[in-house]
């Protein structure tokens, strides 16, 4: 059965509401979707791509992987890397989407699960917006379908009254659906996905019909390692997924590279001036985070305690972005130790009692003694006081 498009989806080309509450163009959006922000790269890849494409894919698997990992096309177009990490991970993820198994991106917080899922959907289907956000309160309707109650009461159950979920839309269009934080969804609601993923169909008993997925449909779910035990994935559902684990950045250089890249992009969208020598402070934030995360200093000599919260690349990105904003609005635009000290303290000290002790100890035993870290030490002392 064809699925009614009752609600216009951004990026779907069915833009009905252009009122004052809605950005007029992608350029005006505070955060454009991946397919909008990188439209020129996707178009250049599509033009250069002469490899076979699976049904309804915008690009071949090779071009999708290139979009994620970056590269230079024969015509000179530079594709920026979106994901920095092992090539094989991306290849396995992309290949999975071309099979009848769904893709589960697993990893600790801040390892780019959401980011990779968005870019995969953008590259494969040209639309990353068919998204279900998983929470403890996600109802079955968010995965299957709901009803427009005014129409339901006026005319009874009909196709017109049906409100398809993002997953149902993706099934009937043959595109990629996304489910964020799958393991936060209650187990019985998660199980709704079993029929969808194994039978590739979604029954609508009220209408005596079903929506069958057309080729091109697949699903990307993300789940957090740390949430394990909140709602385990049932083994029946797990078998429908190929799991790809996204690791933390392997080396400090990789992590500095990721942070610098993302900060530059975010800074541009927030209209912050890009700092000429910000990379020193970025390296410092990354060093502090890695040492606290690993429980040992970079030279392997001193053991340090780890704080309770997560100190992921994502947190490093927000600390540096926050620092840049401070430097831009209250400093001379150059990122300095004082601009990142408060952000680091906020990220490290989540539990006011235990984490503060951890931080003080790190400050006095590691930061204080380190060459070239005097200014940073002083700035940290000032905000910790
Ligand atoms: N390896 C990486 N390559 C590129 N960007 C990365 C990498 N690791 C982290 N990031 C960046 O970190 C930020 C956070 O990533 P994202 O929100 O996707 O993490 P997540 O794994 O979904 O975390 P959570 O479990 O908290 O939802 C993104 O801006 C992303 O660009
Ligand atoms: Mg996420």
Automatic annotation (TrEMBL):
Do you know which Pfam families this protein is assigned to? AAA_5
Residue ranges occupied by any ATPase dynein-related AAA domain in the UniProt entry: 103-241
SUPFAM superfamilies recorded for this chain?
A: P-loop containing nucleoside triphosphate hydrolases
What InterPro entries does the record point to? ATPase_dyneun-rel_AAA (IPR011704), CbbQ/NirQ/NorQ/GpvN (IPR050764), P-loop_NTPase (IPR027417)
Chain residue ranges for the region called Disordered: 1-27
Q: Superkingdom of the source?
A: Bacteria
What GO molecular function annotations does the UniProt record carry, in alphabetical order?
Answer: ATP binding; ATP hydrolysis activity
Designated name of the protein: ATPase
Q: Which organism is it from?
A: Streptomyces vietnamensis
Could you read off the lineage of the organism from its UniProt record? Bacteria, Bacillati, Actinomycetota, Actinomycetes, Kitasatosporales
């Amino acid at each position: 059965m064809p699925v009614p498009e009752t609600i216009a989806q951004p990026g779907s080309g069915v833009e009905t509401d252009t009122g004052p509450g809605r950005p007029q163009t992608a350029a005006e959006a505070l955060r454009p979707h991946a397919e909008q922000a990188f439209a020129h790269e996707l178009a250049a890849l599509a033009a250069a791509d002469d490899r076979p494409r699976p049904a309804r894919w915008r690009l071949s698997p090779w071009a999708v992987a290139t979009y994620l990992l970056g590269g230079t096309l024969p015509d000179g177009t530079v594709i920026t890397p979106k994901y920095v990490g092992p090539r094989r991970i991306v290849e396995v993820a992309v290949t999975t989407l071309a099979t009848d198994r769904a893709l589960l991106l697993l990893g600790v917080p801040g390892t780019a699960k959401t980011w990779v899922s968005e870019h995969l959907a953008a590259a494969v289907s040209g639309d990353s917006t068919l998204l279900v956000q998983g929470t403890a309160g996600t109802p079955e309707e968010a995965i299957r379908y709901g009803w427009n109650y005014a129409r339901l009461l006026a005319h009874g159950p009909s196709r017109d009254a049906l409100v398809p979920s993002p997953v149902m839309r993706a099934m009937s269009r043959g595109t990629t659906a996304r489910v964020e934080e799958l393991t936060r969804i209650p187990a019985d609601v998660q199980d709704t996905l079993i029929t969808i993923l194994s039978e590739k169909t979604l029954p609508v008993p009220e209408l005596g019909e079903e929506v069958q997925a057309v080729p091109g449909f697949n699903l990307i779910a993300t789940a957090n390692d740390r949430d394990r035990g909140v709602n385990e994935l049932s083994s029946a559902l797990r078998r429908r997924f190929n799991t790809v684990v996204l690791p933390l950045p392997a080396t400090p250089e990789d992590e500095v590279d990721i942070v610098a890249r993302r900060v530059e992009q975010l800074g541009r969208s927030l209209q912050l001036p890009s700092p000429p020598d910000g990379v020193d402070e970025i390296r410092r934030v990354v060093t502090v985070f890695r040492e606290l995360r690993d429980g040992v200093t970079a030279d392997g000599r001193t053991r340090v305690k780890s704080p309770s919260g997560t100190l992921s690349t994502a947190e490093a990105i927000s600390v540096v972005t926050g620092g840049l904003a401070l430097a831009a609005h209250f400093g001379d635009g150059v990122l300095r130790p004082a601009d990142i000290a408060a952000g680091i303290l906020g990220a490290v000290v989540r539990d006011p009692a235990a984490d503060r002790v951890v931080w003080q100890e790190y400050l006095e035993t590691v930061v204080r003694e380190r060459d070239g870290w005097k200014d940073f030490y002083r700035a940290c002392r000032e905000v910790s006081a």
